[in-house]
Input
Amino acid sequence: MGERDADQLLVERVQSGDKQAFGLLVGKYQRKLLRLVSRLVRDSAEAEDVVQEAFIKAYRALPNFRGDSAFYTWLYRIGVNTAKNWLSSQGRRATALASADNEEAEGFEEADLLRDSDTPERVLMSKQIAETVNRAMEALPEELRTAITLREIDGMSYEEISGVMECPIGTVRSRIFRARDAIAKELRPLLDTAPDKRW
Amino acid sequence: MNSRLSALLDGELEQDGLESLCASLRRHDAHARHRLSEDAHAYTVIGAVLRKEGALGGTNLASRIMAALEDEPVVLAPRRSALSGWKRPAFALAASVAGVMIVAAVVLTPQQRAADAGSVALAQRSQAVEQAKAPKQLAAAEMQEYLIAHQAQSMGTYLGAGSQQIRTVSLMEESAAK
Amino acid sequence: MTARWMGKARRQGKVGLALLASLCACPVQAENNGMAPQMAAPADAFQWLQRVAGSAVKLSYSGVFVYSNGSGSETSRIVHLNDGGKELERIEVLDGSPREMLRENDETKCYLSENRLVVVEKRSSQRSFPALLPEGLGSLTDYYQFRKGTPARMAGYEAQQVVVEPRDDLRYGRQFWIENNTGLLLKAVVLNAKGETRESFAFTELKIGGPIDRESLKGHLKTNGADWRVHNVKTTEASFDSLPWQLRTPLPGFRQVSGMKRVTRPDGPETTHMVFTDGLAAISVFIEPPTAGKARSEAGAFVMGAVNVYRRNIGDFLLTAMGDVPLNTLKRLADGIEAKQK
Output
């Protein structure tokens, strides 16, 4: 089943009353939405607030979501509108970078790591995170590293990866998971001490 | 459960796995859910680093968002898509050989005299009960039945009998189709 | 419907002459093509609203309307004929799965194509809009403020807007657009405290008055398949006061108007269903005993389209309150229900 169908299943679970299932959608898309919103709202803490508000709006509007578009496309529009509304309520206009109407143009890469409005702590944190992940990747057995690379960087489906690596899909899934699990182990201490964790 | 989470993030979790994951989620307490969201966050950060994307320093907003949603009423929306794969049970009322079922509701009104209390005919309606469905779906189906009964009695008929009727019956169909 | 209500109200001696006069103002004239003679436009906002009651019954009209709420929207075509006092009506839903409803007075037949089902029902009790409590009209104005809004033109007709504002936070505001000459309701919305629309109904096309083509009242859905089934719904009147539950502290403006027992599974529990209303909004309370082997349902607040839902447990019983009122109102009502002392 495609990604869009998978999201649709999850949305329908929420629509039948499973509020916790919405947490899975949040987990899946929060970073992507944050990245988008950050292009419109420069301050990181404020961007996070806007993302939170966008998800809450999305939750309330979920009965209106019919699956005519992909879930993320719908969420993305809510994110953009929330950010723009927030900015205008602050008397500000979106930054010049933000012709955020093309969801695929998430092109700003290394440059994003260093942003004017980021605090030194956040910049340092980003670097440390990147280093930890890269280090952990190198320590992985090759088949795990290959699997996660094909998935995350080349964007291949499990089926495609199973073709490339010549192994069953179940093995692909297991390898990707084990790769993530191993890297996350190294990453967790860093994330747990994130500067403004509110929980 | 984390293995399922990993597949979910890739859009590769099949329906059974999704149901399992959601069932686990509901059984877990807030602390366990928080851990799960932290893991999801870590997994997405890993992908971000590999793709050399930005916003790496972002904190995990999931717990905070779910806490904010705690006071929100649970949304319920009628099921629309065929994708959900729920088996459509034999329609609840079609069990009888003759194909006709009588549903009787006892309507009590203030003007009615006490003597009529004896003549009570209670509704008989067989229902294809879906086993092995998570409680939340069952709750939604029950809500639909209640909603039908509520609308049948409520005041909000904009056009008189007609549109109320078709709205009520249509909802009954959605309810039975779960 | 209206006549039946008036009879009841007159017996209770609670209805003022003014109301009777306004409701009697438009006798049905079959030879008039179902058009009521023009009434003088009332000065009072509340009187505008009273004209709506019965106009949908007395008039002949055809059109297209859209109903929408938080869950989505649906467009339907309607044809309504008043033939010397006999009502004939057809509603065909234009979105989604093919459905239509044919009605003759109180008997309705709903044809549901996708489910191959015809639901036949003869309603013994019918409430019309806006339903007025037998207590009299005063109580409605205690809880809502009525005022005239701006005139508007919709679906080709001139209408008067009536704004209904709740006097407390236990109910939602509403607005109605009422056709100037006939009193037919052209549009209605329900608004929350922030003024956001929760529910709306509006004609997008309309022709009031005849002639109505009889062909357009006939059913169009093909029902000749052998797999079509018929479901007959019957209601039986019985006595009151046999319910084991009561409301301990009354909710301002709301009174109980009916109570029922429902059984939906042959071996299933008997559920109590109580209905409360303040004249514009309605609340249903369902109380269900525990079922062996079934998981305990979750308490809490839910939303279904324009209807809010609140569930709580009373001992082993599950109470579900639902209605087009704010959640706090449901909670307050639900929390005030208790078992009667024997």
Notes: The longest strand of chain B covers residues 100-108. Chain B touches chain C through 69 residues (CB under 8 Å). The CA atoms of residues 107 and 120 of chain B lie 9 Å apart. Chain B is about 50% helix and 5% strand.
